[in-house]
Amino acid sequence: MFAVGDVVRMVDVERGTRDRAEHWTNAVEQADVVARNLIAGAEREHTVQVPAPYVWSDQHAERIQTIGTSAGADVEEVIAHPEHPRRLLCLFGTDGVFTGAAAIGMPRPIAQLRPMLAKAAPFTDALELARTFG
Question: How far apart are CA 71 and CA 49, in angstroms?
Fold first, then answer.
C-alpha cells in the first residue's frame, strides 16, 4: 500500500516520530519515492523516504520557511543577517541533534540545512554551517 500527501504520517524510526507534513513540496517528494517503489516491484527492497518536513510561504516580500520541528528542542540559536537585521535564521536541536530550523528572508541556508536534517546531523555541525551565512 502506498500513499502521498496530507494524509500520510511519515515515520522516522531514528527519531521515533510520526509526523504529517501538510505542504505540496512534501507531497511531490513522497510521490517520487512511491513511483520508484512501484517501478521496483514487490521483489525488490523499497526506498524509504527520510522525512525532512519543509514548509514555506512568501509574506510581505520575504520568504518564510521552516524545516523539521522545534517540538522538544532543548537548544535554540538565532542568527541575524549582518546587513539585513530583519532576516533571521533560527536553529533547533534536541540531545545534540539538529531537529529543525526557521528562517525569514534567508532561503539559501534552509536549502543547505535540509539534507543535514534528513541525516539527523549533530546540532553543532548545523550551527557551524548556519554561521557561514550570518
Answer: 21
Look at 89 and 54; give whichever has higher pLDDT: 89
**pLDDT one-digit tens code per residue, 82-106:** 888 889 999 999 999 999 999 999 9
Apex 98 CA angle, 94 and 112, nearest 5: 165
Hunting for cell 521552516 — which residue is that?
66
Residue 15: how many other CB atoms lie within 10 Å: 16
Closest CA to 37 of 21, 48, 51: 48
Phi and psi angles of residue 110, each rounded to the nearest 5 degrees, phi first:
-60, -45
Strands 62-68 and 75-80: unpaired
- Dihedral, 16, 57, 111, 67 alpha carbons, nearest 10: -10
**What separation in angstroms does the CA of 40 have from each of 10, 30, 47, 65, 110?**
21, 15, 9, 34, 32
